Amino acid sequence: MTRWLVTGAGGMLGRDLLTVLAGAADSAGSAGSAGSEGSAGSPDEVTALDRAALDITDPAAVRAAVAGHDVVVNCAAWTDVDGAESAEAAATAVNGTGVRHLAAACAEAGARLLHVSTDYVLPGDADHPYAEDAATGPVNAYGRSKLAGEQAVAELLPERGYIVRTAWLYGEHGPNFVATMLKLAAQRETLDVVDDQQGQPTWSYALAQQLAALGRTPDAPAGIYHGTASGRTTWYGLARATYRLSGLDPERIRPTTSAAFLRPAVRPAYSVLGHERWAAAGLAPLPDWSDSLAEALRRPAFTALVPIAAP
């Protein structure tokens, strides 16, 4: 039996991960345990702790929560990118120090830690996909806070720590770009969307499946993995694809530049990640972003957002 602990279980990714681990209808968002079947047919025991149930900045609470588990998946994070610019210490307390507490507790308990990180630890100035061992260089406070977490995992869990970087995440259970585009379709005839940032839109459910597969592969080498969809596009391309696949007119989406939407935190211009490391774990990378988007948009949470008529 594999004993799983999912932190941040009330968030978009955490809820999808619980669904995958349970192999049943979504039951995430609160503390508790549920049984499921592993890929080999052996039973899994899953403990789900949301933010109210576990504050990862509390080392004693973290140590108590981790004890008795085999695999810990950390979906807990400070995710307010712009807010981190004026509250970097608070962001780092969660994304850096909190992750260090988890890594230390996993080292003590002999557990494996799958920690979800971000493309924002990279400088975003490349012209080809970033390899897993590419030099880091975050351009904003959020990225610096997440890099601190990565460094803690690498330092404290060199043999049992897994850093899974993702980017451009969207899903059914939280605010995200895809849902916003569909909501705005009922309010505006046209939308201006940034076309000078490249990335890999990643469906949270597909990432959850990948995390579960990695957790169920005990001989996978520790280190950095890139948990983003294959392929690449821009926010403009993602918005157009969202409209086209939802039966809306993609010509309602117009291209613009990042300069038109100045925000407190600088965004990387290039967030395309390479996926070579998955082969070492015997796992395939995530599917192409467009295929995952087409599947995701068939889910009721998204179809319910599609307006019957244009504004």
From TrEMBL:
InterPro entries: dTDP_dehydrorham_reduct, NAD(P)-bd_dom_sf, RmlD-like-bd. It comes from Kitasatospora atroaurantiaca. Catalyzes the reduction of dTDP-6-deoxy-L-lyxo-4-hexulose to yield dTDP-L-rhamnose. Belongs to the dTDP-4-dehydrorhamnose reductase family. The lineage of its organism: Bacteria, Bacillati, Actinomycetota, Actinomycetes, Kitasatosporales. Residues 5-298 form the RmlD-like substrate binding domain. NCBIfam families: rmlD. One of its GO terms (cellular component) is cytosol. This is dTDP-4-dehydrorhamnose reductase. GO terms for biological process: dTDP-rhamnose biosynthetic process. Keywords: NADP, Oxidoreductase. Its EC number is 1.1.1.133. Pathway: Carbohydrate biosynthesis; dTDP-L-rhamnose biosynthesis. One of its GO terms (molecular function) is dTDP-4-dehydrorhamnose reductase activity. Gene3D superfamilies: NAD(P)-binding Rossmann-like Domain, UDP-galactose 4-epimerase, domain 1.
